[in-house]
Design goal:
The complex is a heterodimer of chains A (269) and B (92).
Chain A lengths: L2 H4 L9 H4 L3 E3 L3 E2 L1 H16 L6 E4 L1 E2 L3 E4 L5 H4 L2 H6 L3 E4 L7 E3 L4 E8 L9 H8 L1 H9 L4 E4 L3 E4 L2 E11 L2 E9 L4 H7 L4 H7 L1 H7 L3 H5 L3 H16 L2 E2 L4 H15 L2 H4 L4
Parallel strand pairs in A: 1-3, 1-13, 2-4, 5-6
Antiparallel strand pairs in A: 3-8, 5-7, 8-12, 9-10, 10-11, 11-12
Chain B lengths: L1 E5 L5 E9 L2 E9 L2 E3 L3 H9 L8 H11 L5 E3 L3 H13 L1
Antiparallel strand pairs in B: 1-2, 2-3, 4-5
Helix pairs in contact in B: 1-2, 2-3
The chains are: A alpha/beta (269), B alpha+beta (92).
Chain lengths: 269, 92
């Protein structure tokens, strides 16, 4: 680890990974709204102690824009283009920026823990701590990756991914999306990149700045996920798990009453 | 009215609003920032709603600062960033 990385949080907290028992839920394709509902439900069941701390890899049934909790739909999305292309627009419970997800091009996971896991850490420290096993996995894949506060995973080859947290329902949710590959022309049809964002995130510079994992590793997406899984299990001794019948029922209800409703998606129009 | 401000090294804050009788109305503050607890957003917009549009950046920031509950964490933005986005909206 580089000095830069070490300085991001006190290293003794690394012991916390093994101080908890973990479950690892492998990717299973879900509707975008269902993925978000599962995030909320699993944060609640971990927060209440019904479920062990959990890592869940995401998979998707359809292309989607996942807005941050505080983003305005019309400021971020070209709504007519999204509708025409059949791109689903949904809002998540964590802050941060919009993600444009085409199922085979992204790697996304959520970590659900009780507050004790991050006790005493500042928010920026906790971001780096939650993703430390990913940095390790990327380094094993030959990428000189590091954490760029507040919430980016990056490398000399460009930005790889970003994280967002929610602290609610008695638990802590940390989820991260990494670019496996990018379809910039389609993304630019769907997202709206304002002038102010162009000031340091313009298409041309973003194009150069982002370093998707395929470009940096030449490896299939599944291989990268396998290596990430190995890194996580080594660190936590996690056992395979699954969403329970009760959790799924609760999430389905939340899709109906919240995540698939206009009231939630257009909370900030 | 629409104003945007990106904190250097931080996140984007967007302010959408109307002006009525020289006051900020129907203020919506949005962006890719992080805010804990999320309900503090209502306190932020509430603090600005009805303020005179002649208020300076410092006054707006102070009103926001005074309205956010103790223990609120604003990550990637600040009361000043909200004020700058609003002032920029007026100039647009």
């Amino acid at each position: 680890m580089t000095a830069e990385h070490e300085a991001l949080y006190p290293l003794e907290v690394e012991e916390r990974w093994k101080a908890f028992e973990w479950e690892l839920i492998p990717a299973y394709p879900e509707d975008p709204a269902m993925n978000l509902a599962l995030d909320e439900v699993l944060t609640r069941t971990v927060g209440s102690g019904e479920r062990k701390p959990t890592l869940r890899f995401w998979a998707w049934t359809t292309t989607a824009v996942i807005l941050g909790r505080f983003q305005s739909v019309r400021n971020e999305v070209q709504i007519e283009n999204a509708a025409e292309a059949g791109v689903k627009v949904v809002r998540r419970i964590s802050g941060g920026g919009a993600m444009f997800i085409e199922p085979p091009l992204a790697i996304t996971y959520s970590i659900h823990v009780p507050p004790a896991f991050v006790e005493g850490l500042s928010f920026p420290q906790s971001y780096a701590f939650f993703d430390s096993w990913v940095i390790e996995a990327l380094r094993e894949l030959g990428i000189d990756a590091w954490y760029a506060p507040l919430n980016d995973i990056t490398s000399a080859g460009g930005k790889i991914g970003g994280a967002a947290q929610a602290r609610k329902y008695g638990g802590v949710l940390h989820h991260t999306t990494m670019a496996y590959d990018m379809n910039i022309p389609t993304m630019m049809q769907i997202l709206r990149i304002g002038q102010e964002k162009l000031s340091d995130k313009g298409l041309r510079s973003a194009d150069k700045r982002v370093g998707p994992l395929r470009q940096q590793t030449n490896l299939p997406r599944e291989t990268i996920i396998e290596r990430m899984t190995e890194s996580f299990v080594r660190r936590t001794d996690a056992v395979p798990g699954k969403v329970t019948v009760e959790e799924r029922a609760e999430a389905e209800e939340l899709v109906r009453t919240k995540f698939d409703t206009e009231a939630w998606t257009y909370l900030l129009p | 009215m629409h104003g945007e401000y990106k904190t250097p090294g931080g996140k984007l804050v967007v302010a959408d609003f109307e002006v009525e009788s020289e006051r900020f109305r129907d203020v919506v503050v949005s962006g890719d920032f992080f805010l804990y607890p999320e309900e503090a957003l209502e306190a932020i917009t509430g603090a600005v709603e009805g303020l005179a549009v002649t208020s300076g950046e410092g006054e707006i920031a102070q009103a926001v600062e005074a309205a956010i509950p103790d223990g609120t964490e604003m990550l990637g933005f600040s009361p000043e960033a909200v004020a700058i986005a609003l002032r920029r909206g007026l100039a647009s």
